[in-house]
Amino acid sequence: MHLQIKRANIGYNKTLISNANAGLNLGDVCLLIGNNGVGKTTLIKSILHQIPLLNGDILINDKNVKNLSVKEIAENIAIVFSKSVIPQHYTVEDLISLGKYIYYPFYFELKKEDREEVAHIIDELDLTQYRYTLLKNLSDGNLQKAFIGRAITQNSPIIILDEPTTHLDEKNKIIILKTLRRLAKEQNKLILFSSHDWRLAKEFADKIWYVKNIQLHTGIVEDILLQHDELTNASLFQMHENFVPPHISAPPVQKEMLYSLLQKNFSKDLSALNFEFQNNFWVISNDSTKYECESFEEIIKSLVNIY
């Protein structure tokens, strides 16, 4: 294991995560997930040795982080926090180039191959048109992408990102996550990123670290999701206590949208109904009635008639 957590108690004055044991290899993409305040950022800062462990050990490539210098940690881990200090008068190119200066004194000029790598990362993150734009003039989303670019340029074997997709729209979120996964698989990077959205794990991650009730649950994405109903059970979001869902036969996206519609609008037992998505139509049926609906608006009207 390239990154190991062994019997660690993590926190400040009190333990937020107890007796944590986990490990990740180079090439792994791992989602760190949990509610606000459970200790996700504290765990990240503990890996960086910015916060000392209350007990236990964290190892990077078999070396204890408490014995590593700040420079050695930077050579091993590139980090992007959700809130970063914006350097004044820096452009996108300036910021992304900063990732190289862990290898040089700051007064050195970058080599030609370094500048070419920075240009490639700017292009890959869809920031070419902002290359010479001051950071203070960027949108939140493009600013976040620039900080992620700096971490990629650092060329450390581990990249850790705290809520990296918070300010990103769907297009840029996908650009970032695809880039991170490609780095993991093609360049053998270890990627650990935190988020509130478990769906990101299903699409982009290999493993999950899930913080719940001061325990760190770890494993393959699909195993962890199925072991913890609250991560995938739509009833978690029910607005009506008496709502009982019908049987729904549909592709995942349509099924999720229908469930959302029904639980917002009906405080009833709908279990006698069957919904089937056929040829872009919804067919609603029970023992005595059958309706075909082309839209969710028509579904609402039909259910009003049924009930």
Automatic annotation (TrEMBL):
Q: Which Pfam families does the UniProt entry name for this protein? A: ABC_tran (PF00005)
* Family designation: Belongs to the ABC transporter superfamily.
SMART domains according to UniProt: AAA (SM00382)
What is this protein's record name? Answer: ABC transporter
Per UniProt, which keywords does this protein have?
ATP-binding, Nucleotide-binding, Transport
Tell me what organism the protein belongs to. Chryseobacterium artocarpi
Q: Which GO terms describe its molecular function?
A: ATP binding; ATP hydrolysis activity
Q: Which InterPro entries match?
A: AAA+_ATPase, ABC_transporter-like_ATP-bd, Metal_Ion_Import_ABC, P-loop_NTPase
Q: Where is the ABC transporter domain?
A: 1-238
